[in-house]
Amino acid sequence: MPMRVLLAGGGTAGHVSPLLALADRLVADDPATKVLALGTATGLEARLVPARGYELHEIPRVPLPRRLGADVVRMPARLGAAVASAGTAIRSIDADVVVGFGGYVSAPAYLAARRAKVPIVVHEQNSRPGFANRLGARLTRWVAVSFPDTPLRHAVRTGLPLRPEIVALDRAATHDRACEKFGLRPDLRTLLVVGGSLGAQRLNDVMPTVAADLAARGVQVLHVSGLGKEVDVPPLDCPYVVEPYVEAMDLAYAAVDLVLGRAGANTVSEITALGLPAIYVPLPIGNGEQALNAAPVVAAGGGLLVDDARLDAGWLRANLLPLLENPDRLAAMGTAAAGFGVLDADKRLADVVRAAVASR
Question: Which of 38-47, 70-79, 108-117, 321-330 has the lowest mean pLDDT?
Fold first, then answer.
């Protein structure tokens, strides 16, 4: 019988991207596999899942209250409605397994799967798990994680399933074409500055202060600023290209020698899988998971780590500029990053899913 899989994860690209990568792998392995995704009407999954050709079953969004108030009183009813809707999805395809990637959608899916006696697979993208996956890990022994030392029971490191264009990328073969796309010179060293899909104001503010230093050393820059955000760069002799958003991040990676950016799970996983050295500037808000994501890469020698508050022109002149002028050190860091990265995480996670189904 073809496998029937319910995938739960939504709200952000960090949840939706690995969900789609796993779906693609399962269907590639067996085109008869039935895939149904759970999501909300307002998350990115509402657009991305159907665009990839998969069916989406919408359930009510259940935000977790951060303080006492009316939302605490309303949460049990909201959660009950979401669990009931997730149960309907499980029955609609007679699911063999429920795979959750965290976020608002996964907790109801885990509870519905437990009620229906359907195996659960949990995938945690960050080094510090959220509430939904801490719950899910208590309900199953099939737990996959992106980073080592993630504090979940039964955790096995599979890595983070990546987009096909990242997995298939040949950076060397694509380098010249990628430089042409962004208006960069293929003969110059290139720095990629990227602050995630929304950009990073700290990077946008600090980088112009060292732009002339970089140009004087023959270093060009591809700076992804974030939609609606500007970077005020003075006239330079070397290209300094500012893009508000880059859809083809695979080409951006192919064009550059070093990355300066945040440390979200997707970013760290893509950079290391491609063997790129990086300077990580973790987001200073949240629960600190970005610093934890980057820490094992830095410990392995694949990058540097600097606090957001410490990143200024002085730090960049003392650390970034010497690094860009040391090709041997860049190469060694790239090799260490590749040793930490995982290119076949989609296959590894698919194997965990099949093992969970076989355990029924």
Answer: 70-79
